[in-house]
Amino acid sequence: MYLGMSYRVVAFISPIVTSTDDEVKVWNPVKRGCYFENERYLRYFRIYTQRNCERECDSNNTFKHCGCVLISHPRSLSMPVCGNKKTQCVDQTQRDIIRQEIRYGSSYACRCLPSCNDIDFETEAHWRPWQFKVNSTFASVPATVDLNSTSVSLIAVGAKKKYLNKTKRTALIGSAAYVANIGGILSLFLGISFLSLFEVVYFITLRILINLWNMKKRDRRIHQQHFWVNSDFKKQPFIP
């Protein structure tokens, strides 16, 4: 935002705080969607932020394709600053990066994910031409200031809300919550308990063994009855 001469600007700032639960630290950064401060090394910055990562990536890509960097890029002492002859190369490199981000995603070229813990600020500004006039509010203006040949601007900055917005990244269902939910659902629909587990074991093992034993016992009894019938038949006298 630029402040022009003879303008009155009123700006509102809204801080946005983002934090991440420690439980998701074991997740892959791509799956998590963010980097912690010590997970991504930056050559020119001590603290990782998405903006720092993008600036360093732009500097590396420009130096790779053009052999130099812009004066606004972070750089080492051995990296020269691009002159007017490299303007076309720098512009082409920036266009190629933007084209790749549009085609494959915003994080394709640099893979700069947001910070897991970050503080950002949203700004909203309103401005209009302002004719400065001396009144009681500005009675402290030095007498040596020539108001006829001086342009005066005013900027007022304040908070848009009395409270701030805070978001937190966390697992939708953690490991403990997942186990608890599964147990609750099984308890609700199956009435599962330790007694029910023993019943399942009983019907899977003991019941099958008992049924097999009963079947063998019944076959043995049928075999004995058949033997007795044949023996009685042989003892009866033959009548022609």
TrEMBL record:
GO molecular function (one): ligand-gated sodium channel activity
A GO cellular component entry from the record: plasma membrane
Similarity-based family: Belongs to the amiloride-sensitive sodium channel (TC 1.A.6) family.
Name of the protein in its database record: Uncharacterized protein
Record-annotated membrane-spanning stretches: 170-189, 195-213
Pfam families (alphabetical): ASC
Membrane topology: Multi-pass membrane protein
Primary localization class, coarse: membrane
Lineage: Eukaryota, Metazoa, Ecdysozoa, Arthropoda, Hexapoda
Sorted UniProt keywords: Ion channel, Ion transport, Membrane, Sodium, Sodium channel, Sodium transport, Transmembrane, Transmembrane helix, Transport
Location in or out of the cell: Membrane
